[in-house]
């Protein structure tokens, strides 16, 4: 029998009121080792702030929808100890890396938005836009919705320089299932971490 279990905590959606989730956590008799959050950045930061001292060895993880840059900024406002070690899973590789997709993204960002810092949300948008561009090129000049959908659903092994091929199918509308790990350091910068 395993000594681990999953506890689902809730908070009021579209708020930063995480007190109910914290109360649910406090009544647990089994020590909780990690929390996986699917929350917006302010609620996630508030939860970390209010539980960090109560559970100093807790591992805090967030899914990419949290908005990595916003979460980092929010945690840094609280202090470096709140940011250090917070994990965010990403659907794109580390923006601090050197894959060809990252380099293409940084070049485009510098050209069209000088001074704008690389960010996971805009990098994901860059990849999505490039997938659409490839599909539009393959569709040709006689563009219509059905033709574009057919082309997208037939795209396989698309190499945009991420290190994993992208593709779709009639019943597969997610281009990649790869998840990259990142963790904040005390300065609020994301470092790549291995998840596997």
Topology:
Elements: H1 19-26, E1 34-37, H2 41-51, E2 59-62, H3 68-78, H4 80-83, E3 87-90, H5 100-112, H6 120-139, H7 145-154, E4 180-184, E5 190-193
Parallel strand pairs: 1-2, 2-3
Antiparallel strand pairs: 3-4, 4-5
Q: Percent range for helical residues?
A: 25-40%
Uncertain runs are: none
Output the number of helix runs: 7
| SSE-based structural type | alpha/beta
Q: How far apart are the termini?
A: 24 Å
Name the beta content range: 5-15%
Coarse morphology: globular
Give the SSE order as H and E letters.
Answer: HEHEHHEHHHEE
The main sheet comes to:
5 strands, mixed
Q: How large, in whole angstroms, is the Cα Rg?
A: 20 Å
What is the mean pLDDT? Answer: 92
Strand order of the largest sheet: 1-2-3-4-5
Query: Based on DSSP secondary structure assignment, what is the total number of beta strands?
Result: 5
Walk me through this protein's architecture.
There is one protein chain. The chain is an alpha/beta fold. Helix content is 39%, strand content 11%. The chain contains seven helices and five strands; from the N terminus they run αβαβααβαααββ. It has helices at residues 19-26, 41-51, 68-78, 80-83, 100-112, 120-139, 145-154, and strands at 34-37, 59-62, 87-90, 180-184, 190-193. A five-stranded mixed sheet has the order 1-2-3-4-5, with no helix packed on it. Strand 1 (34-37), helix 2 (41-51) and strand 2 (59-62) form a beta-alpha-beta unit. Helix 2 runs parallel beside helix 3 and helix 6 (120-139) packs across helix 7 (145-154). The radius of gyration is 20 Å and the shape is globular.
């Amino acid at each position: 029998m395993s000594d681990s279990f999953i506890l689902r905590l809730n908070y009021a959606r579209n708020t930063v009121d995480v007190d109910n989730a914290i109360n649910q956590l406090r009544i647990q008799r089994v020590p909780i080792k990690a929390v996986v959050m699917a929350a917006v950045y302010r609620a996630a930061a508030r939860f970390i702030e209010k539980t960090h001292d109560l559970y100093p060895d807790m591992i805090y993880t967030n899914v990419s929808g949290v908005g990595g840059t916003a979460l980092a900024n929010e945690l840094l406002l609280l202090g470096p100890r709140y940011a250090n070690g917070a994990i965010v899973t990403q659907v794109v590789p580390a923006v601090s890396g050197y894959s060809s997709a990252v380099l293409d993204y940084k070049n485009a960002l510098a050209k069209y938005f000088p001074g704008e810092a690389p960010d996971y949300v805009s990098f994901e948008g860059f990849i999505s836009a490039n997938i659409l561009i490839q599909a539009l090129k393959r569709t040709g000049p006689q563009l219509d919705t059905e033709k574009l959908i057919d082309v997208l659903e037939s795209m396989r092994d698309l190499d945009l320089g991420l290190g994993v091929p992208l593709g779709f199918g009639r019943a597969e509308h997610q281009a990649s299932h790869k998840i990259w790990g990142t963790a904040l350091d005390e300065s609020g910068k994301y470092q790549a971490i291995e998840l596997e």
